Amino acid sequence: MRGRAVRVLRPAVGAAVLAGLVAAPWSVDDYTVALLARTLALGLVAVGVALLTGVAGLPTLGQTAPYAAGAYAGAVAGGRLSDVGPVQLLVAAVAGAALAVVALPLVLRARGVVLLMITLAVGELAVVLAGRWTSVTGGTDGLAGIAPIRPLWGLPVLATDRSRYLYTLLVVAVLTGLVLLVLRTRAGLLLRAGRDDEARLRASGHRVPAQVAGVHVAAGAIAGAAGSLLVTAQQYVSPADFGFDTSALLLLGVVVGGTASVGGALVGAVLVVAARDWLFGALPGQAPLVLGVAFVVAAYLLPTARSARPAPRRSTPTARPADAPRPAAMTGVRP
Amino acid sequence: MTGVPVDPYVVPALDGVAYGLLVFVAAAGLVLCFGVAGILNLAHGLLFAIGGYTAAAVLDGGWASLAVALAVGVAAATAAGALVAVLLARVATAGHLTQALLTFGVALAGGSLLVAAFGPDDPPVRVPAALDGSVAVAGHRYAAYRLVFIVVAAALAVLLHLVVRRTRAGMLVRAAVDDAEMVATLGVSPAVVRVGVLAAAGALAGAAGVLGAPIIGPGPDTADAVLLLSLVVVVLGGLGSMTGTLLAALAVGQIQTLGVALAPSAAPFLLFAAMAVVLAVRARGLATARTAT
């Protein structure tokens, strides 16, 4: 019953959200439009996080690393290579994918909490790097005054907040649509199979490591492209855009949207980031406290956060992740 | 040994030892949490910051104030660690994403409360007057406090090793890492072990925060910085190995001080490169290394 209702409602909700996003720049002020464009860029990173965390079962706190790589690569390409948006997007996506490749040896074999730990360290190290590699990134001051882009060769530059927002929306919609299409193919099926029962997938002759590598690099490319969109939207970039709190907000957005739903992750991230920005305006100084309490409440209330392990509440004495089975321990036979 | 040629790297190397031992004492708590409960405690940096702010508020240059700061800082951080455990107990059967959300929420809210209580600036920390000078080490002047800190932190490391290796509590912790169900059949509640471990982790982080305040001072960024360093060290050390964590912490200390002195331009990349190299070499054992010592 519920599943059918969701199936019917989902396209309708998707269309309504899209219509609202297209209409938004005509109903709010320029500042909010610029904020929305930034939020959409983060939403695209959340699409990659959902792809990794929900679809492939590889929880991550480190997508800010390829996001940052893409942002700086896009900004540098904008200054030295081309002011055409898709060119910058491509450079940024390649940079994000390249960073994901570099991180592969670290993440390939890890799962669960271990993976969260390693990806968080990678993400934080990327921020440290961005803050110290002054010759390229401008250090903690960042890169400011980045020139506006052209959407295509020969077209005028996007001089207004509204035009930049619409460009961002278009790119996010196209890339998210692409991800959704790919997930309907066999590749999507295999990813979910790997999440649900990796050993079985491996036993049936599938190359799970190649699959993990593929989805990790793809998510890196998506985050890289999102970085370029961030630069397009706000025309400056600094390490502050990629901090620990950004990773955590993304994770919350993905959990709010339903971890296995890519579209939901986009909407969830947009909602969470918008709520954060609104809180910072409404409660100056108090926002982190309220946000922190919101995280704790979300951990208690959100079904997707809790259902990662379907066991009844008080039956299992440990919080060991479900993906670390130890058959020897269960039988009491020790080698 | 005065009269030997002046070696410009003695001071950075010593600093690296002090820094590394500080990171070790801070990271040891994270290793315990992770090894026993499989918990990624994102509030761990906050526990260190609690100790640091306590030191800044209490220390007045006398020995008594150091003792008070240590007692108060350790008690507060222990309580905070236990609070995290109690909060986590309510979602004990939920997945790791829930742990990450919850502990991050605690970190965010707690950090905000600390800044509200102590202000947004980095407060100055006064070490005991007797240790405020410098001493001669191989012909160099070196801060006396850091030298004493090295001795104290090394003693703490040895003590930790003995507790985990030789005491009943340590044995239970190690047993809980290997087989929580079996520990439960011994009549020891794994939930109690978990609260104990998170409280102990808090105590370690609090002690590191108080004693290390003159080295990594308290401030709004302290919690994040310490969490990052601890994570890197725990990951490098093999995720659950105390000895590995100690070696990794000492290596990170040298990278952060000697590395900067030797190769200033490459310094930003060194930590990243070290982590990539170590993990690329020993990635096979990473996900399975789950022993507590």
From TrEMBL, chain A:
Pfam families: BPD_transp_2. The chain crosses the membrane at residues 40-58, 87-107, 114-133, 165-183, 248-275, 287-305. GO terms for cellular component: plasma membrane. It is a multi-pass membrane protein. One of its GO terms (molecular function) is branched-chain amino acid transmembrane transporter activity. It is found in: Cell membrane. Residues 308-329 have a biased composition (Low complexity). It comes from the Bacteria. InterPro entries: ABC_transp_permease, LivM-like. Residues 308-335 are annotated as: Disordered. Keywords: Cell membrane, Membrane, Transmembrane, Transmembrane helix. Signal peptide: none annotated. This is Branched-chain amino acid ABC transporter permease.
TrEMBL record, chain B:
Pfam families: BPD_transp_2. GO terms for cellular component: plasma membrane. It is found in: Cell membrane. Its main location: membrane. One of its GO terms (biological process) is amino acid transport. Keywords: Amino-acid transport, Cell membrane, Membrane, Transmembrane, Transmembrane helix, Transport. It comes from the Bacteria. The chain crosses the membrane at residues 16-35, 42-59, 65-88, 100-119, 143-164, 191-216, 228-252, 259-281. It is a multi-pass membrane protein. One of its GO terms (molecular function) is transmembrane transporter activity. Signal peptide: none annotated. Belongs to the binding-protein-dependent transport system permease family. LivHM subfamily. This is Branched-chain amino acid ABC transporter permease. It comes from Micromonospora robiginosa.
